[in-house]
Amino acid sequence: MGGRVTRVFRNFNVENRARREISKEKPTPAPRHPTARLDAMADSPDIKEEVLRKDDRFLTLLKDVYVESRDPPVRVKDGGGEHLPCKQEEKRLTKLGHLEALDVKKVSKGKISIVEALTLLNNHKLQPQIWTAEKIAAEYSLELKEVNSLLEFFIPFTVQEFPKETKKAIKSHKPKQLT
Fold first, then answer.
1. What DSSP character marks residue 178?
2. Where is the composition biased (Basic and acidic residues) (predicted)?
């Protein structure tokens, strides 16, 4: 309902107001800066003559300038150009066990998937004598230096359950009674 009322006032006498605005005199433009008048001065014969006149001193200096340019030697790239398809990386099947549906099926050699990383970290944590860095590197096609860094800096989460409070502990606390 409010939209109808405002529309009536907004559209009231629109044509007369528009005609009044159109019939007003146009405002006079602001005066131009004096540098804008250089175009008119460029047409004068004195300036044209000065521009076209050759200066002997500048010509001799220009003749002394000698520019020599050489292209750098072209290098032939071995193994094809940038735009040609490159050799595909070797891939290996992942070792996921029962978590196979959660992760990718093939991984490049020298890399591991997230599920594999969590699995190997957990295996090393539970059985460090069996899952040594050398065995992990051989099993997952990784470099020994990277496996050592992985085992040193990444630790899987551990879940710890704390004993719940017994009912005796809760009942021993007596609330204050209001008098």
1. P
2. 18-27
What's the rounded Cα separation, in Å, for the pair 129 and 146? 19
Q: In whole angstroms, what is the distance from residue 31 CA to residue 72 CA?
A: 56
In a 3-state reduction of DSSP, which class is residue 108? strand
Report whether 140 contacts 120 (CB < 8 A): yes
Per-domain boundaries in the chain: 91-153
Question: What are the tens digits of pLDDT across the range 52-110?
Answer: 888 888 888 888 888 888 888 887 666 555 555 555 566 665 665 555 555 566 777 88
**For 95-129, what is each residue's pLDDT tens digit?**
655 555 555 667 778 888 888 888 889 889 889 99
What residue type is 53 in one-letter code?
Answer: R
**CA 75 from centroid of its chain's CA atoms:** 33
Distance CA 87, CA 64 (A): 55
Locus of tokens 């990784």: 142
Q: Which two tokens stand for residue 99?
A: 């978590």
SS3 93: strand
